[in-house]
Amino acid sequence: MYHFCVSPIYKEFTGFWGFDQLWEIIRTQNYEALLTLKGIQAFLRPLIPVLLLIEIIRGLFYRRYSHSQHKISLFTYILNRFISSFLSIAMVAFCIGLFEPYALVKTTLTWYWFVYGYVIWELAHFVYHYFGHKVRLFWCLHSTHHAPEYMNLSVTYAHFFLEAPYTDIIRTTICILLGVNPPLLFLIMFIDGTWGAFIHIGENLLKDGRLGFLNKYILTPSHHRVHHARNPLYMDTNFCNLLNIWDRAFGTLQDEKQSMEIEYGISRPMKKGDFLDAYFGEIVALGKDVYHAPGLKDKILYIFMPPGWSHTGDHKTATVVKADYIKEHQQELSLGAKP
């Protein structure tokens, strides 16, 4: 019985660090495998967990660590491992099988189709992410990721368990229909997933997240810190993951301003450090709004309108809050501090 209980926990613990494939290469001394795609993946897979450990150790050393900074993310990761291990990959496989026959173009695993595929992937990511902020129902799933009032690598594990399936339905469908074939898609997903985790790196490990000149050309940890901010000017910005092409195209790119301290978290008042409030709070709030809405039309609108929409007309959406802020601080922003 003891072995039955401990073995799965041990596998989960060791699996989290991602050393299993790399250890197998070392054990068999098959170092040529490191030159293959699977070998590169095996080498990079432990990167984020190891950086997270270094981030925590560094925080302890400089006395900037608090267990509350990781509690929500840790509990979210544990819960999601129990209830959603296979949902996401199942949705990806389903969408590939359903939509691949209808692809508009046929691509191969070459460098120019890789560039094309990455641009399409970023479009798909932008669409999913934009709706995650602009549709109340989707925000209920995405808000768990924005609930922590801090930024560190553990935040990358803080997601509502249903977010991954609906995310991959949107992203995979768009990519497959626009011709990104499965091998190319999986390569891009691995690269983008690694980068998407890295950009959550906290100030304990990387004080300035701009990454020098790269800040002009890609989305850096600095951009993603802005995305996680509840400052009015920063709301609903930087939806892409690595390439900023679609944020530039749709006017949602926002650089970090040195004069503005980032306030992490969501605008709804929360119980500080409360996992259940972070995980289910927005769903409860939506349920209350729908229940108290005066008619069927308003009940439906609460589900699909942006967070902050109200049937009374007293809207507190990100668009309204940002517009009011810019109007109030117009002179200050026009003189503004350099980003």
Question: Would you write up a description of this structure?
Answer:
With 339 residues, the chain is mostly helical. The protein folds into two domains: 1-65, no CATH class; 72-338, no CATH class. It is built from 16 helices and no strands. The longest helix has 24 residues, at 111-134. It is globular. The termini are far apart. Residues 1-6 have low confidence and may be disordered.
**What is the helical fraction, as a range of percent?**
55-70%
**Topology order in helix (H) and strand (E) letters:** HHHHHHHHHHHHHHHH
**How confident overall, as mean pLDDT?**
85
The oligomeric status of these chains comes to single chain
Low-confidence stretches: 1-6
Q: What's the helix count?
A: 16
Radius of gyration (Å):
21 Å
Quickly count the domains: 2
Based on secondary structure, the structural category is mainly alpha
* Strand percent estimate: under 5%
Largest sheet: none
Structure summary, number of beta strands: 0
Cα distance, first to last residue? Answer: 59 Å
Shape: globular
